[in-house]
Amino acid sequence: MLDSLLAVTFRLFYSKGSTAWYRDKKAIIHALTTPAEYLKTRGKRMPPEDYAKFMYARLEQIHAHGEKWRKHPYFPNYLLKCIQDHLAWHGDDLIEDASAFGNVMTDLAAKLQGTLRESEIKRAEAEERTIAILAQAHELTKPKRKITPKAEAPAVKQLGLFSLLLLIGFLCQKLSAGN
To answer: What is the pLDDT of residue 57?
Structure first.
């Protein structure tokens, strides 16, 4: 599933033969797996097909609504920001969809009272593994350091010229008094 999401991302946002794709691929995987981490932290699961549909829809929206992504200096950051914004505004809908699926499985299990077919059990386990694997991929592709904008970089306190001359004069006095 992740391969098909990467293929769609390449088709929509990168030109054939682009070297930027190889540079950006790890960060794009991180962005594409953000919803899986979101679901995992809330204890929800989702069928792989629904996750793929959700992500295809987000990629199509980003591609269709504006040219900002063309002008952005580093596309994976823009993609991640768009996905995070979508989850901030519509994350409850995603949780409801995932919960509705979980409730259907719970209801089915209750109705059958332990007579679930082996294929249904395997499907439920596969869906749980899918979110866990995608969340793990998200964690593995996390940047090692946070990139801070230059405007927010911590200021290093430096001595002014006058303060530096005073310090040198003070040290010279101490050295001459000690001899």
So the answer is: 92
Question: What does the block give as tokens for 111?
Answer: 């109705």
Write out pLDDT tens, residues 140-159.
Answer: 888 776 654 454 445 556 76
- The model's pLDDT over 84-98, given as tens digits with 9 standing for 90+, comes to 998 888 877 777 776
CA distances from 151 to 53, 144, 147, 158, 159 (A): 38, 21, 12, 17, 21
Two structure tokens written together for 46: 């989702």
The secondary structure of 96-131 as a DSSP string is: HHHHHHHHHHHHHHHHHTT---HHHHHHHHHHHHHH
The total number of residues shown for the chain amounts to 179
> What are the tokens at 119?
């294929």
34 and 84 Cβ atoms separated by less than 8 Å: yes
Three-class secondary structure of residue 140 per DSSP: helix
Q: How far is CA 78 from CA 36, 42, 95, in A?
A: 18, 25, 23
Condensed to tens digits (0 to 9), the pLDDT of residues 7-27 reads 999 998 888 888 888 888 999
Of 86, 99, 83, 79, residue with least CA distance to 39: 99
CA geometry: angle 104, 86, 64, nearest 5 deg: 110
Q: How large is the C-alpha radius of gyration of the chain?
A: 26
